[in-house]
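Data's thin. Show one?
=====
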Amino acid sequence: MLVVVIVLVVVANNASSPEYKVIDELDRGDSYNVTVTTNQTEESDIENIVKDVKEEYEGVDALWLWVNNEDEELVATAKIPYNSKGKTMIGEEDTLIEMEK
């Protein structure tokens, strides 16, 4: 019974994450530049995408993320530091998300 409950929690959590597709990825050794596209462009969706991508690329110092809509128009950017070197690289203490107007 416990296994069923855990599986349901994982499935429910994944269902709330917006879908996105990585269309470009540049490995710079200690950091990544990543571009994704999505059809879900509300601020809360972008925050969830940033969280998912951040988890996916753990192990580097910093990540620069560009989020585009399906027409490949820029919707948001994010700078993600993972450690003190990453904070220096991107010039921010914490993840910074900037929505385009």
